[in-house]
Amino acid sequence: MGSIAEQTKQTLIQNGYSANGLSSDALTREAADAADIIINMTGRQREEAFWEQEKVEDWIVQDPFGAAPETYQRVFEGIKRRVNQLALGLREERENQTRAK
């Protein structure tokens, strides 16, 4: 915990994202309680890793640690695609709730 692989930082920078101040921290109970959704990319089942399973969405993501830069890029693109899909789905859900009122 605490450190980010250099290739992760390089992949973020090459894709236009800042890596400044990026760190790896354990999820605290307080942060989990405050979250609307938690994306689980640990490779562990949500029941093993999280207190409130109903907030957790499991994503199967390859850990690129130690792999070639191309692998980091492929994993980055997969995560980015999933985040965009999640955002679109949440936006549509909010719009549907607004219309129903």
How far apart lie the N and C ends? 44 Å
The structural domain count equals 1
CATH architecture term: 3-Layer(aba) Sandwich
Count, helices: 4
The CATH H-level homologous superfamily? Response regulator
Which stretches are poorly predicted, pLDDT < 50 over at least 5 residues?
A: none
CATH class: Alpha Beta
Beta percentage is 5-15%
Helix proportion range? 40-55%
**How would you describe the shape?**
globular
Strand order of the largest sheet: 1-2
- The multimeric state of the shown protein is single chain
- The computed structural class is mainly alpha
Taking Cα atoms only, what radius of gyration do you get, to the nearest Å? 16 Å
Q: What series of H and E elements makes up the topology?
A: HHEHEH
Question: How many beta-strand elements?
Answer: 2
Report the major sheet. Answer: 2 strands, parallel
Mean pLDDT metric: 92
Throw out a few tags for this protein.
6% strand, 50% helix, 101 residues, two-stranded parallel ribbon
What do these coordinates show?
A two-stranded parallel sheet has the order 1-2. The longest helix has 32 residues, at 69-100. It has one domain (6-100): Response regulator (Rossmann fold), CATH 3.40.50. It has helices at residues 6-14, 29-34, 46-49, 69-100; strands at 38-40, 56-58. The N and C termini lie far apart (44 Å). Helix 1 crosses helix 4 (69-100). With 101 residues, the protein is mostly helical. It is built from 4 helices and 2 strands.
